[in-house]
Amino acid sequence: MSAPSRPADALPGHPHIVRRGDALMIEALRADELARRFGTPLYVYSRAAIEQAARQYEDAARDHPLALRYSVKANSSKAILQLLQRRGWGFDVVSGGELARVLDAGGSADKVVFSGVGKTDAELLAALRAGVQCINVESTSELERIDRLAGGLGVQAPISLRVNPDVDPRTHPYMSTGLRTSKFGIDQAQARQAYARCAQLRNLRVLGIDVHIGSQITTLGPYLDALDRVLELVRDIEHDGIRLHHLDLGGGLGIRYAGESPPAPGEWIAALSERLRARGQGHRALLVEPGRSVVGNSGVLLCRAITLKSTLERHFAVVDAAMNDLMRPALYEAWQAIEPAVLREDGHALRYDVVGPVCESGDWLGRERMLDLREGDVLAILSAGAYGMAMASNYNTRGRAAEVLVDGEQAHLVRERETLDDLLRCERGLPG
Length: 432
Ligand code: LLP
What we know:
Layout: E1 17-20, E2 23-26, E3 29-30, H1 31-38, E4 42-46, H2 47-60, E5 66-71, H3 78-86, E6 90-93, H4 96-104, E7 112-114, H5 121-130, E8 134-137, H6 140-153, E9 157-164, E10 186-187, H7 188-200, E11 204-210, H8 221-239, E12 246-248, H9 265-278, E13 285-288, H10 292-295, E14 299-310, E15 315-319, H11 328-332, E16 338-340, E17 350-355, E18 364-371, E19 378-381, E20 402-407, E21 410-415, H12 420-424
Parallel strand pairs: 4-20, 5-6, 5-13, 6-7, 7-8, 8-9, 9-10, 9-11, 11-12, 12-13, 15-17
Antiparallel strand pairs: 1-2, 2-3, 4-14, 14-15, 14-19, 16-19, 17-18, 20-21
Bound molecules: ligand LLP.
């Protein structure tokens, strides 16, 4: 598959990442120079791109009561959390670790929602002690456990139940979370009873209802279907005398990787708000947990071609980034655009498989890409701001990449490259 055709200079869907002459620019800085200055593999984010995406959500919040809770799992870098926290955003976390990161970045617990299908007692206690806004509960057994833990602390736990509406989000199966067969949430049919149980438990305070159907969703239909399903339930639950203060509709809005044209954040919120009004529920406060659509197209992964090799079957560009740095292609066969940092037009373009050095055939970053390359050239893998660094590992004893946030003409190193010492620090040899 070759890159989709595009007008000169514009990289569609990638604000602030442009081609100027031969050079790929992140805001005012050349990608090849960033690679030289900070080394590769290197994650680079555009502050202006993140702020532009954030602003679209903030604008939508003017027209409908809307709480913005950035989903930390998409990219948990401290600098990005700080940037959003300073704009007034709260956070969606899924572990005690993410909660600690948010607090460390200056986020306030009363704007944190805590989701996740398997929260431990220690994590729940940390959330209750910190005073999070809401715990999204995923089973009746978790409900009983939270009641007990909150009772032990002498507090009331603010909770929502995560309901599984059995709606197909029409995305990759690994990114679908609201189907009946999924491990997430409480079945729609069992939710009314679960709320009734909440009302009997003294250490719980019901705040709302939560639903998240999946990720990289590129059409509005599944969201509207899920909303309709949840509103039926809201009616029944409130009929039973339980008041729901907010509807948490999760995250999931897709971005443009190749030719997709997902709704903009403002369109998404406007459509939800309109559906609420049409159902006589225009007053309902919404809470959303976007991740990918805030940071995904603000970031690139820069890497350098180590070796170009041609076998009888294929041409390979072996680069210094690998599946441990960017797992999405290996895990989901995800397609992300690959652009040379400096365009060559030597007439030596070949159809390359861009692969990493890791000892697995699944270690590829892009397949069959027409590229005019020489060894040592820098490549940028686009749309790498979400679920890139956040999913990186140390497989093959590879230190994780450094991260840079570009702000106009400035480049801030926001995470140092992991060293071998970092990797070996937790290991203990056998005695004797
Ligand atoms: N809220 C909940 C409860 C979630 O499970 C997720 C993502 C989000 C919010 C944020 O969704 P977003 O706006 O980022 O789509 N690793 C995969 C994506 C997994 C998403 C998991 N849940 C990928 O690389 O595409």
